[in-house]
Amino acid sequence: QVQLVESGGDSVQAGGSLRLSCAAYGYTYSSYCMGWFRQAPGKEREAVASFYAGDDSTFYADSVKGRFTLSQDNAKNTLYLQMNSLEPEDTAMYYCAFTYGGSWYCPGLGIYEYKYWGQGTQVTVSS
User: Fold this and answer.
1) Which of 10, 103, 117, 124 has an alpha carbon 20 to 30 Å from 87's alpha carbon atom?
2) For residues 110 and 88, what is the distance between their CA atoms, to the nearest angstrom?
3) Which among 32, 69, 30 has a CA at the least distance from the CA of 49?
4) pLDDT tens, residue by residue, 59-111
5) Residue 23 parent element (H or E)
6) What ranges make up the beta strands (E) of 1-56?
7) 49 vs 30, residue with greater confidence
């Protein structure tokens, strides 16, 4: 079993920054995808960014490209999402997700392909 723990969510004003963290525990293979998703009330859960551990490649949704950046700390088994120039539209519950499989094309994975999920961390951006 893989366990994911998110942290870093907070309330900020538009234009501010936050860094979300996702710590992973219990994984046994080095080839996997990890992703950040978000869900606002009344909306579908949507992919924000993803990471493939096989080659350290990253993907960003068009809505956050240029503002959000992924990074990782392998020693801490932690994936970070640096969020800059935050907008009210970024307000949502943010979830970290994990799934095994080197054959996966991580940017093409949706919520049904990810096997493990964290509990979420709330990000609120005021205008």
Assistant:
1) 117
2) 24
3) 69
4) 999 999 999 999 998 888 899 999 999 999 999 999 999 999 766 788 889 89
5) strand 18-25
6) 3-7, 11-13, 18-25, 32-39, 46-52
7) 49
